[in-house]
Amino acid sequence: MEWFVARLLIQSAIGDAREPGLCEEEIRLLHAASAGEAYEKAIQYGRANECEYLNGEGQRVVWTFVGLQDLYRLEEQEIVDGLEVATVFHDEPVPPTSKEKLKVFAVPEN
User: Fold this and answer.
1) Cα 44 from chain centroid?
2) Cys-Cys with 15: which of 49, 59, 68, 86 at CB 3.0–4.6 Å?
3) What pLDDT, in 10s, does the model give residues 36-73?
4) Cβ within 8 Å of residue 17, ≥6 positions away
C-alpha cells in the first residue's frame, strides 16, 4: 500500500445562475495499492461530496464534483509529524491568518 494525495474540485451553483459559484478544492490523503485504486477512491470521495440544499435566502445551492485537479504519490511513504502533503503557489502575496481565525481555534457560530 502507498500514500497518495488527491486534489478534488467541487463546483457550486446557486439558483438559476448561469455563472458558476465557488469552486472548492479538497486535498485528500489516500491509502491505496496502486495509482489506479487511488484514482477510483478519489472519484468516490468526490461524488460522495455532491449535495444540494436551500441557503439562507431560500435559493437552491448545488455542489457538483467536476473532477480531479491532480493525483500524485507522496514521495515520503511514512506518515510522520510535519509531513508535507501539498504545496500551493500564489501569484500574489497572501496575508497570514491570525491564530484566533484559524479554523482549529475558531469559535463556532450558533
Assistant:
1) 13
2) 59
3) 999 999 999 999 999 999 999 898 999 999 999 999 98
4) none
Phi, psi (rounded to 5 degrees) for 39: -60, -50
**CA–CA distances in Å: residue 54 to residues 59, 60, 69, 83, 106:** 5, 5, 28, 38, 25
DSSP class of residue 16 equals T
Residue ranges of domains in the chain:
2-75
Torsion sign (Cα): 31, 5, 72, 49: positive
- Give the span between the Cα atoms of 21 and 52, in whole angstroms: 13
What letter would DSSP give residue 15?
T
Does this model's pTM top 0.85? My answer is no
CB 9 within 8 A of CB 71: no
Summarised one tens digit per residue, pLDDT across range 77-90 is 788 888 777 777 77
Spatial distance between the Cα atoms of 4 and 77, rounded to a whole number of angstroms: 9
